[in-house]
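User: Round two. Same drill as before: sequence, then structure, for each protein.

Assistant: Same drill it is. First protein:
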Amino acid sequence: MRIDGYTRTCGVIGNPVEHTMSPAIHNTLAKVLSKNLVYVPFHVPEGSLSAAVAGAFSLNLLGLNVTVPYKSEVIPFLESLDPLAAQIGAVNTLVRTAKGFRGYNTDMPGLYRAMCEDGVQIEGENVLVLGAGGVARAVAMLLAQKGASQVILMNRTLEKAGRIAEEVNRMAGRSLASAMSLAEYGSLPEGYSFLAIQATNVGMYPRVDAAVVEDAAFYRKIHTGYDLVFNPARTKFMSLVSQGGGRAYNGLKMLLYQGIIAYELWTGARVGGDLAAEAFREMEKAMTYRKEES
């Protein structure tokens, strides 16, 4: 690509950030759409987040993605917040405005678009959410918004899951969510077949031989498993879901669509299905290169 005085810069800030797949998404979109834009990762050390956001604005960056551990920490340094990001309490996309950056959450819309493409519905479903961190909280909010029948948050620490369940119920205005200790998975109600969303980092590369629950009986209650981990492409959770007779998906399409929505916010472009598929292929290539180098 040509880089000149008119080139706009976007990127991702995090710590660490070297593993990111996002350049494969955004630089592919820019190339195909003939946008004079380049996307690069920025490693922001602990304690430097405020300076990084201010510096990005001063350097006229068009926008930023935000990854761990800064998705909530970045909020005080923003000019404004989109209502969805405020509700979730996490930001992964910064969009330049006249006075500063506006924060958005494209993770949950990205997950929803990915699930729709994979034919996984939420409305009327009985859903298990494994985990009780920030991602699990955002997933539970999405499930409430999209009409899930019930949501059971399963976590090692019951109190954390309980706090999220209470918050979701207040937001939903109904008794939708409940909490359960992971150790009590055997007491899940009989007669239900669940959609399960794996929202922890268990099974993520390089610790690929673990799942939060490993009992085959648990997975026979799951008709569809969605693991938000994308590296490795097939996690142990996914394998156990398949062995139990269910459909299994990873989080790579969520990553794709959160990036596409961010790109659309930055540029005003609209990304169609063919271009999304091309960006997805570039992400898969990037994962292959990384494995060959490691």
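Second protein:
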Amino acid sequence: MERKDYDQTKIDQLASHFEEIIRLLGDDPSREGLLKTPQRAAKALYYATSGYRLDPSEIMRQAVFTHDGSRMIIVKDIEFYSLCEHHILPFFGRMSVGYVPKGNMLGLSKVARVVDAYARRLQVQERLTAQVCREIFETLPAEGAIVSCTAGHLCMKMRGVEKQDAMTTTTDYLGTFATDPALRTEFFNLISQK
């Protein structure tokens, strides 16, 4: 997100809340190290939630091309960063997206942009995975779509249960991937290859 994309009124409003949060936590927002923290934190949160200001369907429509193929297309290991809607702490990982074309294909970078458009919101991993899958399936449209997502959650690592090595994997699939177990197996075999 470019600097010009910031809504300064919203940044200022968020910053005033961050200033009060710092005060409520027991620190002095006017001390040297914290003087600019409310503005920096506001901009960081505004950027981290930029997905609310993006339309995933419109992103996809910018790069749909005719394609006669009928085999699976996969973009794997798309890194993403999101915020847990329960604790507003980061979770991050990688997502692999596959689809079987139905006369059209999507520009590869748009797959990653759709992931970001949904990830950069207050989220849960389960919903994020399903949203990306449904968007590819319905908007392209595709014969089938499948998504696998693996992430680490700071809400599990730095608070609560404090399990540093715990990772969560979620999957979702629609269309031909829902009816053809061999196709799902092919997808998982392909994304596991280095």
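The two ends are 31 Å apart (CA to CA).

User: Perfect.
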